[in-house]
Amino acid sequence: MSNKQEDRTVILDNGEIAKATFPVVVSASRSTDIPAFYADWFFERLKKGYSAWTNPFNGKKFYVAYEDTQFIVFWSKNPRPLLEHIDYLREKDIGCYIQYTLNDYENEGLERGVPPIKERIETFKLFVDKLGKGAVVWRFDPLILTDKIDIDKLLQKIENIGEQLQGYTEKLVFSFADILSYRKVKSNLERNHINYLDWTKDQMIEFAEKLVSLNKAKGWNYNLATCGETIDLDGIEHNHCVDDKLMVRFGYTSKKLMDFLGVEFIDRNNPQFLFYEDVAISLDGNRYAIINKKNKDKGQRTACGCMKSKDIGEYNTCPHLCEYCYANASKEVAVANWKRHQLNKNNDSITEK
Fold first, then answer.
1. Is residue 123 part of a domain?
2. Fewest CB within 10 A of the end CB: N or C in the chain?
3. How many domains does the chain divide into?
4. d(CA 143, CA 154)
5. Which helix (H) or strand (E) holds 142?
6. What CA–CA distance (Å, rounded) separates 23 from 69?
7. What is the per-residue pLDDT across 115-132, written as a single tens digit (0 to 9) for each?
8. In this structure, are residues 196 and 145 in contact, taking their beta carbons and an 8 Å threshold?
């Protein structure tokens, strides 16, 4: 087999040989909730060595091989089914962390398909115990304004969750629902009779000021960060959701991953350390890591800080049925695709195409 990426191939379930991409970092997934609904499928494909992915823009089928995969970023609103698979990742020396969206829209019925908030908080803590603090990132995403939810109510919801997660998370990531820019979101909210309000710049600033004050008053000391937002807010960082620094923290034993990320290790006692102290990532003992490579994914939105990865999810497949969903054209289509998956869970893609 050639070492050139464009020449590498994978053997399919039917014995045929096909060209494939061999990502070092996998995103699972921005397009659907793989941990909640497709965890068994994903880990079966991981064991078989590849899965299929359909490009949402041109409908073409591509193959993703996992031979080189060293790290997986999971995205979920209910990752509980993932718990039984974490040990397999450890056996294979594959690192991971979870972008855990933990919202509270229970009373407003905006997320009818997710478990109760109490259960989701318990799940969050279980994963922290399993993976370590920092490897489970709290997202309250998106922040939605409606005729029933104002800024102060959003802050009350965040305060309730934030109090219960104290000691279990280092960060709170959020974004402002950009409804007018996303046709699917606007259509889904209107179809479901949600009287939404689009955020103004002044409202964003007001929310950020109050959140920073709340974080300080409660003594949480959470790192506060926005996802995909262009606005600069005092006391708020711009997040890197697929984050090379987090990968270093939780995957630094993988030489292949460190080479891919462009990491150099340095001892604190090294005189050169003084030049890197502000950007050095603390590991074990006196050892630190420095990333000497720009890993930003240029294929994402300008405001997105994520590094390059391969997302293996498919749109229109998430049956959480959130009223504001950007990934589903409609609830009916998502449920139909999920039911189709149940009939053929061994397929190499989430949906047969």
1. yes
2. N
3. 1
4. 7
5. strand 136-143
6. 6
7. 999 999 999 999 999 999
8. yes
Residue 290 lies in a domain: no
Q: State residue 341 phi and psi, 5-degree precision.
A: -65, -35
Domain membership of residue 76 as a residue range: 5-242+297-343
Q: Is residue 281 part of a domain?
A: no
In a domain, 255, yes or no: no
In this structure, of 134-143, 191-200, 206-215, the range with the lowest mean pLDDT score is: 191-200
Task: Find the helix or strand (DSSP H, E) in which 304 lies.
Answer: none
Token representation of residue 101: 């969206």
Residue 214, token pair as written in the block? 């709340």
* Token reading at 87: 């040990």
* Whole-number pLDDT of residue 5: 64
The average pLDDT across 125-153 equals: 97
How many whole angstroms separate alpha carbon 76 and alpha carbon 65? 22
Could you tell me how many helices (H) and strands (E) the chain has, helices first?
A: 11, 17
- Are 1 and 319 contacting, i.e. CB atoms less than 8 angstroms apart? no
Which residues pair with residue 226 across a beta bridge? 174, 238
Encoded tokens for 83: 């718990």
Cα 138-314-125 angle, rounded to 5 deg: 20
Which of 315, 351, 334, 350 is closest to 45 using CA atoms? Answer: 350
